[in-house]
User: Fold this.
Amino acid sequence: MSAGALLTGCGTDGTGDTGASGASGAGTDSPSPSREQESAAKVLWMGDSIAGVEGPALEAALTASGVEFMNASSDGGGTVVEGDEMSSRLAESTWEDLEENIASFRPDVIAYQITTYDWGTPEQQRSSYEKLAGTARDAGAELVLVSAPPFRIDDFYRPYESAIESAPEVAGEVAEAGGGRVHFLDSAQLWGTESDAERAQRAPDGIHSCQQGSAAFAAWLSEELGERYDFAPAAPEEWADGSWTGDERFAQLGCS
Amino acid sequence: MPFSRSPSRAPSPSRPAPAAGRAAARGHLAPLDGLRGCAVAAVLLFHAGHVEGGFLGVDLFFVLSGFLITGLLLREAAGRGRIDLAAFWARRARRLLPALAVMGVGTLLLAWAFGPPALLRLALDDAPWVAVQGTNWHFIAEQAGYWDASDTRLFAHLWSIAVEWQFYLVWPLVVLAAARGRGGEWRVASLAAAGALLSLALMVGLADPVDTTRVYEGTDTRAFSLLLGALAATAPIRDLCARVPRPAADVVVALLGCGLVASWVLTGGQSTPGLFRGGMFAHSLAAAVLIALLAGVPDGRTGRLVGSAVPRRLGELSYSLYLWHWPVYLLLPEVVFGIGGWGRTAVAIGLSLGAAVAAKRWVEDPVRFRARWATGRRGLLTLAAAAAVAAGVWAAIPQPHPGAGTVDVDRLMAP
Assistant:
């Protein structure tokens, strides 16, 4: 079954923080009625707080494109990697949440942005990403692994630098072996590889993005998902300067 | 029913008290004011980015508060045979709330006039929590990370005031119940010690390496500092300290003081190994021992140094200085008159000191020492007017719309 066929004609029984239900954020950036009536896909968005601040823009962009969206990113943690003691602790709650979110939202696509906490050996990372791919497959969904943007490696992250570097490589390998149901998107196409470069569009903390960066990511990922899942991404003027830009998370990051 | 004093160890008005008890009974000790001054200096330098472990100054504040409050409660219980809880809470309210309210209203107005919309919006969101002294739990629930997001919240520093207030609500009830009858101060001491250990266990158990805000700002996990201070104020510890020869006590006080300052300089941020697994508890314990001994030898060399004019005066201003410094730090431009770094810090501290002096002179002291407008019917009218002004300012400031115009759509569509 092709991805496009898989993703069309899905129901609208998503619950929680879903774009199509109008639960939050993008309410004033609503798509056209015809798009609301039949969602092109249902995307479950996972990741850490970096994904969290990309979420409002992504919700606005995908909802405007007729895609149902659920932001399941974490405010701190969000990793699926069962690696060292700390990442395993974080992963435990991520896996619990994922099970609940799959049951309630029934996604067609699970999009996981590699987190800053995917700490573990390459083998542990591989095992965890494969487990995620298997979970997605069992749920009837495809898995999209997205590399993390470049972020400032401070004293907190320095001990885990090798794990942070290996995670996207391992994710790419898991996608290659995924039989067409697992995809890897390298966000370096958008951000580049230097966290302090202007292109990376990091917030004052050097880790997250402000509104412009989140909008850029949402536009990029919408294009990528649209190509794979047969929907036309809405033009940025339809959603990019909507009410989502006032999300409190941006204020907490010191964005304007 | 009147309380009986501790059988043999509590200082009795009819016979000479041990040195520590005698000193503590005076209630107001210059070296303790000086310690408060040192603590606020550490916090000011920490928030300015100059002393990484200066956040431990708040810990010293907590220990001092626990010590002083418990001392007051125990003396009232011993002297009057009862504790007038309503009067205690009223005194704490008079001491803490007026300056807090003035700072809160002033900060909202300054943020409205000069601050960016995002800063104002969060300040308006947080203000009701300031009013109910619940900012710490509000920040924990909002996952507003203390170490990462404090510079986006003008009231971020008020978590500690909330912790103290919550302690003031609960601890007098415990003292009231436990100090009753024979061995009362021993029971209070036992409860303080047990509570401190339980609090430590909670901190260790709840410590989350990703974000330590829960344990850093939780009332339960920070209670050990206040309770160790409380323990230091009880008769068993006072008597123990009184047995330490004065010269030895003076030396230990000096060593502990140097140790605390060294810990402020050498401790890094939240990722300091062991900080939330006993490190902060050790700091509190050292501070409690220091305070207990210092209260017994306030006129020793260390006591005279710590109680000298500058730290003492700083300590007397510490509450309003603490209240005002953070809004000043955040609202002041990054570069002031062409200077940043230490120069900006000096300007910020100068402005904060000015605000603190004004607040103490025109708000704290008149209310505390019962100026005519702050007592009786006039006092109630003043209170009602102040509450109305505070609520009115909060409601009248237009909700800002942060984020508007932050996305350049053309830039998104550029190839």
Chain B touches chain A through 33 residues (CB under 8 Å). The CA atoms of residues 145 and 211 of chain B lie 7 Å apart. Residues 51-309 of chain B form one domain.
